[in-house]
Specification:
The protein is an alpha/beta fold. The chain is about 25% helix and about 25% strand. It contains six helices and eight strands. The chain has helices spanning about 5-10, 30-35, 100-105, 125-130, 150-160, 175-190, and strands at about 15-25, 45-50, 65-70, 75-80, 85-90, 110-115, 135-140, 165-170. The strands form two sheets. A six-stranded mixed beta sheet has the order 4-5-1-6-7-8, sandwiched between helices. It is globular. The chain binds guanosine-5'-triphosphate and magnesium ion. The site of magnesium ion (MG) has 6 residues, from helix 2. Guanosine-5'-triphosphate (GTP) binds near residues 141 and 144.
């Protein structure tokens, strides 16, 4: 027969596309994370940090940083041939909060990046997603020089619900970031009462 298994399996797969937000405090590594995994050249909206912003932009721990995101980062990653994520990185500075509602529309879930040296900087993002019922995962970006704390300590400090996944990651490392994104998708699907289908072969 012409329509055997092999010809069916060659049919192009129309991927499901999901929107994931990447949030967290100023300079925690959101732009770095999107850039590390994106298979398209990431769209960035970086502007140079100015002298005028010096009193409000706390650079402790990221002294080498000389630009900041003013609108969003955008990237794409194919997790599986039938599952593509669009990543939207949020601006980290408080003065860009007005953009968040726009960016959050239609998001399946979110990553809250955290730096244990400045954990309080991600409180606002955690509150935002809790209040809006958007499933999120906390990913601790392991900067050199930051103390490594067990994930349970971070969970307690952020007062997270037990089902919220907390992971350690390196925002510069593709496979580490991929693991975080898989955790977000699985968590969001589980929250929606769905479980990811096994990959088609
Ligand atoms: N050592 C180390 N440096 C990192 C890591 N992730 C990011 N950086 C550096 O930290 C700085 C801040 O990274 P960004 O990716 O711009 O942070 P951001 O969260 O997008 O910053 P805003 O958009 O300004 O809020 C940059 O200089 C990065 O090179 C990391 O995992 N380890
Ligand atoms: Mg940024």
């Amino acid at each position: 027969m012409a329509f055997g298994r092999s010809s069916r399996s060659k049919r192009p797969v129309e991927p499901v596309t999901l929107k994931i937000l990447v949030a967290g405090g100023f300079g925690v590594g959101k732009t770095t994370l999107v850039g590390a995994v994106s298979e398209i050249r990431p769209l960035r909206t970086e502007e140079r940090l100015s002298e005028a912003g010096r009193p409000v932009d706390d650079l402790a721990g990221v002294e080498g940083k000389d630009t900041t995101t003013v609108a969003m980062d955008f990237g794409r990653i194919t997790l599986r041939e039938d599952l593509v994520l669009y990543l939207f990185g949020t601006p980290g500075q408080d003065r860009f909060w007005f953009l968040w509602d726009e960016l959050a529309q239609g998001a399946l879930g979110a990553v809250v990046l955290a730096d244990t040296r400045r954990l309080e900087d991600c409180f606002a993002a955690v509150d935002y997603f809790e209040r809006r019922g958007i499933p999120f995962t906390v990913a601790v970006n392991l900067f050199e020089g930051a103390g490594q704390f067990p994930t349970e300590t971070v969970r307690a400090a952020l007062d997270l619900d037990p089902e919220v996944p907390v992971l350690l990651c390196d925002a510069r490392d593709r496979s580490s970031v991929r693991d975080v994104l898989v955790a977000v998708v699985e968590h969001a699907l589980a929250r929606a009462g769905l479980s990811p289908e096994p990959a088609r072969t």
